[in-house]
Description:
By secondary structure, this protein is an all-alpha fold. Helices cover 74% and strands 0% of the residues. The chain starts with a helix and ends with a helix.
Amino acid sequence: MSSSMDMFLNALQVIAGMYLIYWAIRMKKTKQLKNGGLISNSVNIDNAPDKESYIRSTFIPDIIVGAVLILSGLAETIVSKFGIKLSTAGLSIIILAVLAVCIVFGFYIVKMQKKYLEP
C-alpha cells in the first residue's frame, strides 16, 4: 500500500476513535440517544425500555475502543512517518488485534441494544 493511502487510513482510524469517544461522552452527559450513530435505525429510541442501563453498559467500552483506535492509528502513522522498521508479521498482528477488538465491540453493542433498547 502506498504511503499516502496508509496515512489516509490511519487518519480515518484516529477520526473514528475520536468520534466514538465523543459519542460516549455526549451520550453520558445528555442522557439522550440518537439513531444512526452506533444505534441501529430499526431501534425506536422513544419506546426504549431502559436507556440509562444502555448508556451505563456501553460508556466504558466506547471509550476503550475509541482509545484503541486512536492509539493504533497514531502508532501506525509514527512507524511509517519516521521509518521505524516493523516486520510485516508485527504490523499484521497489530491490525488483526484492532480488527478483533472492533468485531467484539460490534457484537457487544448489538447485544446491549437488544437487551436494553428493544421492548
